[in-house]
């Protein structure tokens, strides 16, 4: 990035240009962001998080991410020293510390650790960590244009009555195993089904299918993604039939179009499933239309706002 484009209150040689972290009340370089190896967020995956994004120096639907994060904190009995407005101010200030045009804004809360010698989690001091890092894309530009390949995993998604997927979490071992399985099958992505055979989601993304012009996405057993909600909002605005539904892998394989949604890339087409083409094997017209509108919504209010004001 050209230093002349940097915010005027930040020197061009700022150590935070390519990312920054905030913890324990201070901004620090990413390389200095650390927690105790005894933190239950590390030893027990006792943590929650959320990830918003900045695109062309505008933050997208930040209030939606903050609201979900605050709900997750309440669900897991975490406490942080900010209300929603205070957290919002901190997140925006963190981005302003950097020179990144496109970035992730990560908000993480871990359980912390109880005093040594105790196992009482009520004695833990919860840790809030904020990180702004360069944008990490789910797919390359060529892949986003041509489409990805996917497979239906043999692994079953962690049941929602055990770990609520609506609370964003790091319980990813089912996802990690499915990623290895997909790679061994020569696919880019893995879709997981629940115990009942219903399609759920994949590692960091929601699944959509288009059938007969109607857009469908799994109704439950999934993270209620902000990009997922954005697609449903766009469909409502544009008169595109859309609904949450229950469907299995056979229905997904018979779709006219498939796409996934994620903060890490927006709307990404999937053109082959289990080594068979979806439709004509190219990104479909509904997927292309929704993707175009989605990125257009990044350009102005009310869905996005400039960082440097």
Automatic annotation (TrEMBL):
The keyword DNA repair does not apply. Its EC number is 2.6.1.42. It catalyses: L-valine + 2-oxoglutarate = 3-methyl-2-oxobutanoate + L-glutamate; L-isoleucine + 2-oxoglutarate = (S)-3-methyl-2-oxopentanoate + L-glutamate; L-leucine + 2-oxoglutarate = 4-methyl-2-oxopentanoate + L-glutamate. It holds the Pfam family Aminotran_4. The keyword Transmembrane helix does not apply. Its cofactor is pyridoxal 5'-phosphate. InterPro entries: Aminotrans_IV, Aminotransferase-like, BCAT-like_C, BCAT-like_N, Class-IV_PLP-Dep_Aminotrnsfr. GO terms for molecular function: branched-chain-amino-acid transaminase activity. Pathway: Amino-acid biosynthesis; L-isoleucine biosynthesis; L-isoleucine from 2-oxobutanoate: step 4/4; Amino-acid biosynthesis; L-leucine biosynthesis; L-leucine from 3-methyl-2-oxobutanoate: step 4/4; Amino-acid biosynthesis; L-valine biosynthesis; L-valine from pyruvate: step 4/4. Keywords: Amino-acid biosynthesis, Branched-chain amino acid biosynthesis, Pyridoxal phosphate, Transferase. Gene3D superfamilies: 3.30.470.10, D-amino Acid Aminotransferase, subunit A, domain 2. SUPFAM superfamilies: D-aminoacid aminotransferase-like PLP-dependent enzymes (SSF56752). It comes from the Bacteria. One of its GO terms (biological process) is amino acid biosynthetic process. Acts on leucine, isoleucine and valine. Belongs to the class-IV pyridoxal-phosphate-dependent aminotransferase family. This is Probable branched-chain-amino-acid aminotransferase.
